[in-house]
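> @MW can you paste both from yesterday?
MW: sure, first one:
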Amino acid sequence: MLRKSEGPVRVMGFARYHKRADVETARLIDAALAWQETFLRPMDGILFHAFLGNLNGGFADIILARDDQSFEGMLKAYDDAESAKTFMALLEPGTVRLSRNQILKQIASPPDAFSCVEFGTFKIADGSNAGEQDVLAISERIESEYLDQSDNTKLHYIGRDAENRFCEVTFGRSLGEAKRMCEGYVGHPVCQPLLDLCDPTSLDLDFWYLLA
């Protein structure tokens, strides 16, 4: 895991993908670690990277950047980096999905002491009058009155991409506890309002554990 103490954090990238069937997971982890150390670590403004896996055989990168310029600079340099080429050659073509989000709260520094990440995306339902400020207000209540009541929660925030799709991200101490907290949203007087304003067909949620 890459974590730099400098901040604040304003941009998040989340890329999901699958490895080729003939590639061993250990080889993919080694390539991800080499990419993290030789490409991301020296980059100014790239403050955090974690390589993740899920229980369905998928993999993901989460990257936190100081600003748009830092994230864009990383993207432009990516194709020419040898470690990136090596890593990409291990992935199943056509499976990469990249979500780039503006983080909608002030984060002073990247997270620490976590082992899993909950990443969910959604759109506001058609016909709803809710907007960004409504989502943020509900999110703040969820943090203060629900998530922060558990020492499993290490960081939580809402983001938004260029297509007005929101993401909710929670860093947790353990995957099991994070899943339990998420399941507790249903019917909870503080959390249910967030579910109520979502278009249910747009929900995309998964849980990821730390690999490197």
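MW: second:
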Amino acid sequence: MSERSEREDTRQAVGQVLRGLELFPLPDGWTPIEALAVVKCLDASGTPTWCTRRTAGINDEELLGTMVLQSELLKRDILSDWEDDGDDD
């Protein structure tokens, strides 16, 4: 197995995989137990692309539910901004 394949097949700490990126902290008293990340990356040829990474405890149904929920919340926020612009046209 090549060095690259071994590295890709071994889970690593989130901070190691996404080093240099920053997130807002969790509220006081909250304890992280699982994570899902949607990451915009540059591939080996320098082309921007997207990928997802998730911790071992997130199954496909949770992944789908999370993505659908975030999509619906984003649509609601965007529509709210558009409807509240005060323009009568």
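> thanks! The helical segments are 3-8, 14-17, 60-83.
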